Every structure is written in C-alpha cells, then in structure tokens.
Amino acid sequence: MKKFSNKPILIKKKIFNDRRGFFQELYLKKNYKFNSKFTAFSYSYKNVIRGLHYQVKKPQEKILGVLKGKALDICVNINKKSKDFGKVYKFILKPGVMLFVPKNYAHGICFYEKENILLYHLSEYRYPEYERGINPLDKKLKINWKIKRPILSDRDKIHPNLSEI
C-alpha cells in the first residue's frame, strides 16, 4: 500500500487503449492509504477558475483528475507552521493523469477546453461552514493562469489574499 507525501504529487496510471477509446483504473483502495468519504465532479467551461479553496476544520485530502478537457491545477501550502507556507505547486491535468492534494493546501483549477469534467475523491465530507478560500488572482502568489478573462464565482472574487488569512 502506497502512502502519499505531504506535498501534492501527480499519479500516473496505466491506460488501456483500443479502437473504442481507453479504460483506466482511477482509484483502488488496496493501492493507496487514502480513505475516500466523498466523491464529486464538476463540469466547467473554458477560462473558468475554481478556487483556491480549503476547509479550516476537517481539512480534506483530495485525489482528482480531469476526465475530459485540460486544466492547470494549483495547490498552495497554507500550513503557517511549514517552512513552505505560501509555496505554490502547479500541475497540468488531462485525461490519464491524477493528482493527490494533501491536507493544509488550498486548491484551485483553471480549465482550458470548451468542455471540462473534473472528478474529485475527498477524504472528508464537505462542511460549508468551514469552507474558506484565497483570492485566485492574488498578485503575491504569482500564479500565471494563462488566460486573459477568467470566469470566477461571485464567492471566489471576494476571497482574501493569502497574507490576510
């Protein structure tokens, strides 16, 4: 059984291609020390940014992957006791690649295709009262989302900068 690290990591799984398309095993409990309590998916259009999100209590570990489309995934270390507090990790996600996001990371994602589907496996339930966010356009984070006109939720537009959390 593989244990994940304290940093975000890409998970590359074997893809079985044939004339119909492909098949891939996304998550096998026996292979990872990860307790999935909650699974969700999102559908997003091109230039949508979701995040940077986290929970202040009952933080979530995540395994996620793009089922359709292409995305830039961002993880920001929000553990104030860590020497890497504020460090930004960037990953390109497309079908066939998954990402593990540990607790104590804010998570955000930007989509590049006309249609994008993201699947999430989460280690903890969603608690709206504990949900928080960081402004994804915080200039001090120096995140180049590689889009000119991001589409954000009203809630994500008003999240504080990292220095304010």
Quick overview:
The chain is built from one helix and twelve strands.
Biggest β-sheet strands, sense, barrel? 5 strands, antiparallel
What structural category characterises the helix and strand content?
A: mainly beta
| Structural domain tally | 1
CATH superfamily: Jelly Rolls
So what's the overall shape? Answer: globular
Helix share, percent: under 10%
Strand-residue proportion:
35-45%
CATH class: Mainly Beta
Number of helices: 1
CATH architecture: Sandwich
Low-confidence stretches: none
| Radius of gyration using CA atoms only | 16 Å
The string of secondary-structure elements, in order, is: EEEEEEEEEEEEH
Through-space gap between termini: 36 Å
Number of strands: 12
Jot down its keywords:
165 residues, mainly beta, Jelly Rolls, 5-stranded antiparallel sheet, 1 helix, 2% helix, globular
Question: Overview of this structure, please?
Answer:
It contains one helix and twelve strands; from the N terminus they run ββββββββββββα. It is mostly beta strands and 165 residues long. A five-stranded antiparallel beta sheet has the order 1-9-6-11-4, with no helix packed on it. A five-stranded antiparallel beta sheet has the order 8-7-10-5-12, with no helix packed on it. Strands 2-3 form a two-stranded antiparallel sheet. Helices cover 2% and strands 41% of the residues. The protein has one helix at residues 154-157, and strands spanning 9-12, 16-18, 21-23, 38-45, 49-55, 62-68, 71-77, 88-93, 97-101, 105-111, 115-122, 131-133.
